[in-house]
Amino acid sequence: ASGHCCVGRCYAFAVGVERDYAKAMTHYREGAELGDAESYELGSFYEKDNDGHQSQRLSFKWYCKAARQGH
Predict the structure, then answer these.
(1) CB neighbours of 20 closer than 8 A, spacing ≥ 6?
(2) CA atoms within 13 A of residue 62's CA, in its CB half-sphere
(3) What pTM was estimated for this model as a whole?
(4) How far apart are alpha carbons 40 and 44 in whole angstroms?
(5) Rg (the chain; Cα; Å)
(6) 35 pLDDT higher than 80
(7) CA 43, CA 70: separation in Å to the nearest integer?
């Protein structure tokens, strides 16, 4: 996993920092745009109701991108 993924997980799961879903999503999105596994993380993030960010449409979009990237 890239640095963006690791930092995103820290914010999403409050590891060493306060939980901040907005910052987690920012790092996941930046990594996903680089073609890393964060596309899958974003799909999972939107699939679950994380602080009101649930969206089946966005979840599907990011899961599809992850699949196209081979993740």
Answers:
(1) 11
(2) 24
(3) 0.76
(4) 6
(5) 11
(6) no
(7) 14
